[in-house]
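Sharing a chain and its predicted structure for anyone who wants a worked example. Both blocks are below, sequence first, tokens second.
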Amino acid sequence: MTLTPARGLAWATLSFALFVAAFLAIFPILAALRVFGDVPHLAQMVLWSLSWGILSLLGVLVAAQLAFGAWLRPSPMALGIAAVGISLSAALHIVLQQWEIARFGYPDPEYVGWTGLLFAVLVALAVAAFSVFLVPRRFIGWAVASVLLGFAGTALVVASNVPGLSDGIRPESWPLAVVIGLCGLYALVTAGLVIRRALDRSRGVP
């Protein structure tokens, strides 16, 4: 099968569609789990990130098979980047809600602003980076753009939390501060690795 630019575009489009479908699949998954008993709320928070991330990774693989006519084998780098990002997303989801409860008595999106969406940005960033290290270099353009967008979103959220450091970090805020810092570091390192791979492509490195 000839790997044309059209096939690369088809892979990217289908991967995005399956990413959205994976998000929508979370709701019936959680509903099905409740049939078998009461699922602790914190477990549901973890499942949001894990199920969305894992299903999206599978979607990227399925999209590659359909577009390129072969099952691609993920490299250790692709799997490692994805695992760290999805794990950080799950950790942030838990820690952020626990911080809201400890600080205000109950969770409310108004208390955390854009930080409440960071878990989703991390999932998208992890899946996009996985894609960059999965498919042939000449097809990674859209995935690289998604990684850079995810990095920018993460950086903005991290930066929005910096002014709060001027008043010091309260004991109940330390776990959240550490996790947000790790999210920023993850985004920075991931963007650097992805840019290096993209530059290798421009130099003709196989």
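Comments welcome. Residues 15 and 71 are 14 Å apart (CA to CA).
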